Amino acid sequence: MGRRTKATAAIENLVATADDAIVGRTIELYEKSKEKFQDFLRRMEQEGSEGKEAFVMLYDSTFKGKVLSDEEKKFVADSMKDALKTVGLVGLVVLPGGSLVFILGTFLRLNKYVLPSAFQNGNGNGNGNGNGK
Q1: In this predicted model, what pLDDT tens digit does every residue of 10-50 receive, in sequence order?
Q2: CA separation for the pair 63, 30 (Å, rounded)
Q3: Does residue 27 form part of some domain?
Q4: Exposed, middle or buried, 43 (CB in 10 Å: 0-12/13-18/19+)?
Q5: Would you say 84 and 54 are in contact if contact means Cβ atoms under 8 Å apart?
């Protein structure tokens, strides 16, 4: 009976160690997911502010007669493209099999055609596309 007690204690110790490892891994995954989600929200906020700025420029040009410079025209055009790309991403998420299309697009390196500019730059430096927009 003494051997069984030692074996039981060893198994309980092994289970406790495994439980600690699982809990540690779960906490690590939670923290990584939380960080990525916060980064996603920050980038969506950036896209929203850029879109708002572009719509203000477009409104001023249309209804107030302001003439846009070439740089402002490019900014408005890029912002409108980003807005359409964002709508397309939402469509991919909603459609059945959309995640497979997204993975395929990533594999084929089509991100510059599919992702809005705020999501193209991996370092999240604020301008999203690396061209100072």
Answers
A1: 787 777 787 788 888 888 888 988 898 898 888 888 888 98
A2: 48
A3: yes
A4: buried
A5: no
